């Protein structure tokens, strides 16, 4: 069946697939200084945010991504007080981070203020913690921010970025991961959104090589479902400063004081398991 203009489609050339959402109406279109930002209302997935033609998030399934980008890293850090989010302009990761009582400061550094302003309007539920006194939102380049950060000033750094093109390209490099390493406290944790384990094998290998090269003692990719991203199977990669990525605060995770829809201790344990194809076909673990 050919799709008409009532569908939004994102084609993935390297996957040989396209993913489509039935649209009720386009709510917003803006060429920002950095990217083209579009918001749609869909019939089945709620609101949809698109940057430069690529799906960023929908109301219906963003919880999978935001919970997996936050809770495994925060429960791996020994005592997460200071958290830095690079990108993440929709504020969903910030909301999850602020669920942790130990967090005293959560800084979100997105290059594009327009993303946050649109999120406040169309995804207010993701922005409900933006006025938390522990939250700090700044709109500048995350690469520069980390390069100038004080040594050992963060316990967790979350790279909630767009794909490695345009302004986000430099967020996937060894030089950037080295600056993050310097900015992390002992036992600190870096987590990067690391694309699809079904499709992006070379990128995943490069992320592991770059993180290992930057000095982290352990690097581990955690897969999770994400229906609206290419292939529907996504991942985040944890890199730990002088500790093991498999060593997380299990008791705190089991007794967490906040609600989640996907993350729990068993999901965390399961995501730490290594599928044989990670080793055999991608060359990572
Ligand atoms: N979950 C999404 C995904 O994986 O497709 C990412 C969502 S979030 C909206 C990505 C954010 O990264 C965007 O708001 C973009 O402005 C931001 N970004 C890209 N490059 C950046 C940089 N160099 N510094 C800070 N933020 C950056």
Summarize the structure in words:
The chain contains nine helices and twelve strands. The protein is an alpha/beta fold. It folds into two domains: 2-58, Spermidine Synthase, Chain: A, domain 2, CATH 2.30.140.10; 62-282, Rossmann fold (3-Layer(aba) Sandwich), CATH 3.40.50.150. It has a seven-stranded mixed sheet, sandwiched between helices. Helix 5 crosses helix 6. The site of S-adenosylmethionine has 23 residues, from strand 5, strand 6 and helix 4.
Please describe the structure with a list of short key phrases separated by commas or semicolons.
Rossmann fold, alpha/beta, globular, five-stranded antiparallel beta sheet, Spermidine Synthase, Chain: A, domain 2, 12 strands, 285 residues, single chain, binds S-adenosylmethionine, seven-stranded mixed beta sheet
Topology (elements, then pairings):
Elements: E1 7-12, E2 17-31, E3 36-42, E4 47-51, E5 54-58, H1 62-76, E6 82-87, H2 92-97, E7 105-109, H3 113-122, E8 135-138, H4 142-147, E9 154-160, H5 174-183, E10 184-193, H6 201-213, E11 218-225, E12 233-240, H7 250-254, H8 265-272, H9 276-282
Parallel strand pairs: 6-7, 6-9, 7-8, 9-10
Antiparallel strand pairs: 1-2, 2-3, 3-4, 4-5, 10-12, 11-12
Helix pairs in contact: 5-6
Bound molecules: S-adenosylmethionine.
């Amino acid at each position: 069946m050919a799709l008409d203009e009532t569908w939004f489609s994102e084609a993935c050339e390297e996957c040989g697939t396209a993913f489509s959402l039935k649209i009720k109406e386009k709510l917003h279109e803006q060429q920002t200084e950095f990217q083209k930002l579009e918001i749609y209302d869909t019939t089945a997935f709620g609101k949809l945010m698109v940057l430069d033609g690529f799906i960023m998030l929908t109301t219906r399934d963003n919880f999978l991504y935001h919970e997996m980008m936050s809770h495994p890293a925060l429960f791996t850090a020994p005592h997460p007080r200071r958290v830095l989010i690079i990108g993440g302009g929709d504020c969903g990761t910030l909301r999850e981070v602020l669920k942790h009582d130990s967090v005293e400061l959560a800084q979100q550094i997105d290059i594009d203020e327009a993303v946050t302003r649109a999120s406040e309007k169309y995804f207010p539920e993701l922005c409900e913690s933006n006025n938390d006194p522990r939250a700090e939102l700044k709109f500048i380049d995350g690469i520069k921010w980390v390069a100038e950060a004080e040594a050992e000033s963060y316990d967790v750094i979350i790279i909630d970025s767009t794909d490695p093109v345009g302004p986000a390209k430099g967020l996937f490099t060894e030089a950037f991961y080295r600056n993050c390493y310097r900015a992390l406290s002992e036992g600190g944790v870096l987590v990067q959104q690391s694309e699809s384990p079904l499709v992006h094998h070379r990128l995943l290998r490069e992320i592991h090589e770059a993180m290992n090269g930057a000095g982290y003692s352990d690097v581990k990719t955690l897969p999770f479902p994400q229906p609206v991203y290419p292939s529907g199977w996504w991942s985040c990669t944890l890199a730990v400063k002088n500790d093991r990525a498999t060593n997380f605060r299990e008791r705190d995770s089991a007794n967490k004081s906040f609600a989640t829809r996907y993350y729990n201790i068993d999901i965390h344990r399961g995501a730490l398991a290594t599928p044989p194809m990670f080793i055999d076909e991608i060359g990572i673990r």
